[in-house]
Design goal:
Blueprint: H1 8-12, H2 15-24, H3 39-63, H4 67-96, H5 105-123, H6 128-141, H7 143-154, H8 159-183, H9 189-208
Helix pairs in contact: 2-7, 3-4, 4-5, 5-6, 5-9, 7-8, 8-9
Length: about 210
């Protein structure tokens, strides 16, 4: 693993508290009865949790030089990722048939970016630098539903302010990674594609809402 990214797995551990606090008021605080939650939400939560743990484990396995286990987890992802995408569908159908179908923008946008970044990561699986950067792009997608909910439920931001502030956070992260790669003479072009998708995401959001 590139020296500048040797602690990537530890940074990705932040996804765990972000996910907990982001979904606490709409999911975790219902424990143990979960009276307001249906089976589909549980399935989506379980698969998304597995996927997040896999995202965290992969760079840690590389850091520990557990290459065979890293490849095994990668092969398992070929099955987990399609299940993750399929788990979005019941919620998307429910939103499409609700009184606020425009909200479908959020899961649909997340699915599109997840599929694109994961597909590119797999396509470049033998090109480690590109593979890692596109997987980072996939990991950043999970900040949308987590930090988004933190902004709304914990900080009291309006939907529009919250989403635009969130996009600024994503831009800062990606710009920081671009500068890091430029400083170390690395290929930062994958981040240009990733940040372009987020710009399109933000523009589309502001046009719809």
């Amino acid at each position: 693993m590139e020296k500048a990214y040797k602690n990537l797995g530890y940074v990705l551990l932040l996804l765990i508290p972000f996910t907990f606090f982001g979904f606490y008021k709409t999911y975790f605080n219902q424990f143990p009865t979960f009276e307001e939650t249906n089976t589909y939400i549980h399935i989506h939560a379980a698969i998304a949790s597995i996927w997040i743990l896999m995202l965290i484990a992969q760079p840690l396995l590389i850091r520990k030089k557990k290459y065979k286990l890293h490849r095994l987890v990668g092969k398992i992802s070929y099955w987990v990722f399609p299940l993750l995408i399929l788990s979005f569908i019941p919620g998307m159908v429910r939103i499409a048939n609700s009184d606020a179908p425009a909200i479908l923008f959020f899961p649909l946008s997340d699915v599109i970016m997840l599929v694109l970044f994961y597909s590119l990561a797999i396509y470049y699986k033998l090109n480690t630098p590109k593979h890692m950067r596109y997987m980072i792009g996939a990991a950043l997608v999970f900040l949308d539903p987590t930090l988004g909910r933190i902004g709304i439920f914990w900080l009291g931001l309006s939907d529009k302010v919250n989403q635009n502030v969130f996009c600024m956070v994503i831009y800062l992260i990606l710009i920081g990674l671009i500068f890091l790669d430029r400083k170390n003479g690395r290929n930062y072009k994958p981040y240009l594609l990733i940040i372009s998708l987020w710009i399109i995401h933000q523009i589309t959001f502001n046009l719809i809402f």
